[in-house]
Amino acid sequence: MTYNIGYFVGSLSSKSINRTVAKALIGLAPHNLSFKEIPIKDLPLYSPDFDEDYPAEGTALKQAIESSDGLLFIAPEYNRSIPGALKNAIDWGSRPWGTNSFARKPTGLLGASPGAIGTAVMQSNMRSVLSFLDAPQLNSPEVYLQYREEDFGPEGEILNPDTKKFLGHYMEEYTAFVERVLDASAAGHIGDAGV
Ligand SMILES: Cc1cc2nc3c(=O)[nH]c(=O)nc-3n(C[C@H](O)[C@H](O)[C@H](O)COP(=O)(O)O)c2cc1C
């Protein structure tokens, strides 16, 4: 069984270290995962004024989320929280009210920073958001990656064997988690909280 994973890179930077990490994760993933980025950079700022006539950008984002079997977020920490561009995309996907696209989607969350805290505070904030959106989350392992230039090549090659093992383990656990959630959902054990 192949699972379609939609992934968000929570940075608009052309030199994003989180994009490099995303490439590394894709390279390490088990072969039964296929990946498609869910782009966030061209979304307008969300307003409830759009709800009555959702624009094409918002509808496309919702369709990309809904057609994914699982979601992966790879994001920086901005001012100890979620980068605005990513939060904006989440707001688009969560609305109009009653059509929350994230509900019951198995999610994984990672982040990289040059700093020692490695996006831990952003991830804590994100977990609250994903909980509210009724999106099951892989709780463990956690990836708070302190990014060191020497550990990665430009196309996501992982030059540090410990980092490679750690992220490879994450992707195995994430894949097993996606399978578990989808199995439970198919068996009717995960319901709609109606967010
Ligand atoms: C607006 C802004 C706020 C930032 N705030 C934090 C922060 O709270 N914690 C942190 O570890 N790094 C912070 N940084 C540094 C980022 O971790 C660093 O720029 C990193 O490269 C961002 O990831 P990216 O390269 O994938 O965009 C901040 C950077 C910017 C531009």
Automatic annotation (TrEMBL):
Keyword match Oxidoreductase: yes
SUPFAM superfamilies reported for this sequence: Flavoproteins (SSF52218)
Keywords linked to the UniProt accession: Oxidoreductase
Alphabetized GO MF terms: oxidoreductase activity
Domain of life: Bacteria
Gene3D superfamilies: 3.40.50.360
Domain NADPH-dependent FMN reductase-like span(s) in chain numbering: 4-146
Cited InterPro entries: Flavoprotein-like_sf (IPR029039), FMN_Rdtase-like_dom (IPR005025), NAD(P)H-dep_reductase (IPR050712)
A Pfam family recorded for this sequence: FMN_red
Organism: Glutamicibacter arilaitensis (strain DSM 16368 / CIP 108037 / IAM 15318 / JCM 13566 / NCIMB 14258 / Re117) (Arthrobacter arilaitensis)
Broad enzyme group: oxidoreductase
E.C. number: 1.5.1.29
Name under which the protein is recorded: FMN reductase
UniProt keyword Oxidoreductase, yes or no: yes
